[in-house]
Design brief:
binds phosphoenolpyruvate, binds magnesium ion
Amino acid sequence: MRGALGGPRVLLRRLREVMAEPVSAQDRLDKIVVLIAANMVAEVCSVYVLRVDQTLELYATEGLNRDAVHLTVMRVDEGLVGHVAREAESLALSDAHAHPEFSYRPETGEEVYNSFLGVPILRAGNTLGVLVVQNRARRTYTEEEIEALQTTAMVLAEMIASGELTALAKPGAEPAVRRPLHLKGVALADGLGLGHVVLHEPRIKVTNVIADDVVKETARLDAAIGKLRHSIDLMLEDDGLAKAGEHRDILEAYRMFAHDRGWMHKMREAVLSGLTAEGAVERVQSDTRARMMRASDPYLRERLHDLDDLANRLLRELTGRNRSSEREALPENAILVARNMSPAALLDYDRSRIRGLVLEEGGTTSHVTIVARALGIAAVGQVENAAGLADPGDPVIVDGQAGEVHLRPPGDVEEAYAEKVRFRARRQAQYAALRTRPSVTKDGVHIELHLNAGLLVDLPHVTETGAAGIGLFRTELQFMIASAFPRISEQLKLYRAVLDAAGERPVTFRTLDIGGDKVLPYMRTVEEENPALGWRAIRLGLDRPGLLRSQLRALLRAGAGRELRIMFPMVAAVEEFDRARAIVERELTHLRKHGHGLPEKVYVGAMVEVPSLLFQLDEILSRADFLSVGSNDLVQFLYAADRSNVRVADRFDPLSPPALRAFRLVAEAGLRHGKPVTLCGELASRPLEAVALAALGYRALSVSPASIGPVKAMMLELDVSAARKVLLPLLEDKSGMADPRAALSAFAKASGLPI
Ligand code: PEP
Ligand code: MG
């Protein structure tokens, strides 16, 4: 038997004509299967569509019993068609009956066909259906035929994705492509966001997949690959970019892939089978995605991201579209969906239009999470394949409390969420009523609640929430959103605005905490193996005193005539604190000499976020005016678990005895020295964790703006001495079995605490 009749290109051209005909969806499908069967010299061609209930329905056939259309339905764990859908891989058999998964459907009359070739209908790596050809004779399908059928399946993928087939479906059995999805992830930032999907790095939509002129398309593909390679080389040569550690590794990987012969070969083959250059890139990438998404190896999955990026870059070369033009079209109620995002990228968006954030990665204390929380954006992380499943404009609900996402939600889910939103609004009103109530526990312990901030947009929160002050002002955020180092005058302006907004309330400014995952795009840094343990925060400040000096100068000038609180991040040795404090003194002298107004009083403190400081508490407390525990970093370093690596970030519970003992050490040392101790990590923002901190002796916490209400509502009901009786014995327990979280949860429940 000879292969494809007239070749795949002829078939594609005919298909394009059929796609353009003004006929019904069913007629179009019927014509398509006839065309494919004739072209492939097959007796049978059938299209199965994956439905919302994850079954496969026969939508059209040439050769099988036509009465079976829309009647034959099978599960994905059933038969050869199910196998193709499940594995998202082609299956070619010369003796289909011999395959262990062969299952026979009498209504189709397929028992006489021996050879079977099935290919998945894929879009962005997701299976939408299965396209099958069958022959009576035992035959081996050639590579070219398999390739041709895969190419044809792309046309069907676009047809299914367009929603054209939905009209043919019974209610509740629509094609799965647009089905509602309930995706589970991890709660990153509290809140409910209802809106429409905006892909942070949008896939380029390929509309024209069928080529007119193969020679021309091959040339276009080659030219685009050439440009892609060149642009990667340029990026690698660009010192500024190339030196930025991790970035360089990614670029090196891109360069490797961009020269990968297998990848090139597959795309060229796809063009030769009749696709446009764009269609070929998309097809090869969709296949690759489908295969790699089934891999559990994290390394392979990481490479998939690289390949996705690269394919998208190639599509940009081909379509001439760039990123900035897409940025403008941010709709109202945007829900950003991304694999991952840097804090700076999030800050780049128009905050007033963003209602939610969905990430495939993202840990609970990673900086993009902190920024989302600061901006009051509901966020959910670790949602598998979120960016692959969502299409721009899809309706979506982000539940930042439960850590869930509803993509294309059905009506009843939407209604339930509308009710939740009303409920939250009522609760917010209750919190607002607590605004002026002092945060005093039932047994009369005053626990000050401050808030964490870092941007101008945070400032209205100070009065809105009734916070006692700003316990942590992350000064680096201004640097992260800028395109060049902010000048002293710009820094001064921000710091003054912060102090003005706070009025009488204290503000604790933390000096620049850059390095680690807080990268300044315009600052050259050296490549580091372990940036979290590297040249960051105060280390960088002391080595680059010019930067620290100018920041301190801006802070001291902004604080003229008022009290000023400054603290240094990542202090690991008291000597670092001494040197940093000396710079403060020098700047004060300088300002005095030049006749500038000075703060009435300057308090200088240290953050406790490196474990070494736990063992120099007396030394640091005899020097510092106050301490603030950065539990995000302290827990990361105590457990050696990278806070921005989702595989380990939440592996260890900060409510475990080792971490709680560490927090207790600091609180008790502060009491001994009569110096204030605060905790400003994300931990304090969760009511149950705040119970533990109050029990350990903390009398001031700094939390995200949205947490002031819930934490205060809890404090008003808390009996601290009762909580101490529950928690402290557990810290003495040496069995290794103590479970403070469970004990505190039970205590909270029994005491009716709003947790
Ligand atoms: C911390 O480490 O807990 C902290 C408050 O600082 P950041 O999260 O900015 O590193
Ligand atoms: Mg920190």
